[in-house]
Amino acid sequence: MKYAIEVEDLTVAYKEKPVLWDVDLNVPEGVLMSIVGPNGAGKTTLIKAMLGLVNTAAGRVSIYGKPYSKQRSLVGYVPQRGSVDWDFPTSVGDVVMMGRYGALGWLKRPGKREVELSLRALEKVGMAKYADRQISQLSGGQQQRVFLARALVQDAKIYLMDEPFQGVDATTERAIVTLLQELRAAGKTVVVVHHDLQTVPEYFDWTALLNVRLIASGPVDTVFTEENLRLTYGGRVSFIKHNGHNTDSDQEKRAEAGGI
């Protein structure tokens, strides 16, 4: 099996408190994978470690066998919407165009091809008519679609997305799911930090269960089990797949995923 991402013995600590501990994770090429776990599980930190955005205490991350610093052009990233300064004075088209700077270099001005690629990406997410609008004037769901377009225009082999469904309406969520499945069908590898356990079997074919340590990873059909979910959430989960049926209890409903 060919791996797009390999994480080995990864440990990350903030002020001496481990956020990720000795994580080993292999992500096969061409899967649509969710990373799920409770608040504080280290899900966002894992994505950032893959991108070299946080310092690691130990371990390494490889993108197709090489450090991320040598494979940047292969990876597209969609950060959490809440981490972005949406008041920055720029247009939708300019935000998407930023996705082409890695291929162009920062000193070369975008040309006709870059404009066409950006508009095509905006059309893909249903936002072409907003190309000239200020990014701050969009709704939360529209902003999320724009950041997806920015990642798409990179034409990457791997896409890392941090809570792309957070704060979007049902229509936008369905559009994002369709887009992710199209990326997988095109042979791309997509890794998504996700919080809604009920939709994991429907949206994804591969999953990683994380709570500081990696609990399990693999195909959803074999890994997304009641036992593994209880190990991940400490016995409190918002969704458990049991004998083909969904079960919820008052205690389980109290659990809510998110993450550092």
Q: Count the DSSP helices.
A: 10
Order of helices and strands: EEEHEEHHHHEHEHEEHHEEH
- Low-confidence spans: 241-260
Structural class call reads: alpha/beta
Number of strands: 11
What is the radius of gyration computed over CA atoms, rounded to a whole number of angstroms?
18 Å
Measured distance between first and last alpha carbons? 30 Å
Inertia-based shape: globular
What is the beta-strand fraction? 25-35%
**Major sheet summary line:** 6 strands, mixed
Largest sheet strand order: 5-6-7-3-8-9
Helix content: 25-40%
User: Roughly what is the average pLDDT, rounded to an integer?
Assistant: 85
Brief summary of the model shown:
Helix content is 31%, strand content 26%. The chain contains ten helices and eleven strands.
Report on the architecture of this protein:
This protein is an alpha/beta fold. The protein is built from ten helices and eleven strands. The chain has helices spanning 43-50, 92-97, 101-104, 112-124, 140-152, 170-185, 200-203, 220-223, 226-233, 250-253, and strands at residues 3-14, 17-28, 32-36, 58-63, 75-78, 158-162, 189-193, 206-211, 213-219, 240-242, 245-247. The strands form three sheets. It has a six-stranded mixed β-sheet, with helices on both faces. Strand 1 and strand 2 form a beta hairpin. The radius of gyration is 18 Å and the shape is globular. Mean pLDDT is 85; it is low at 241-260.
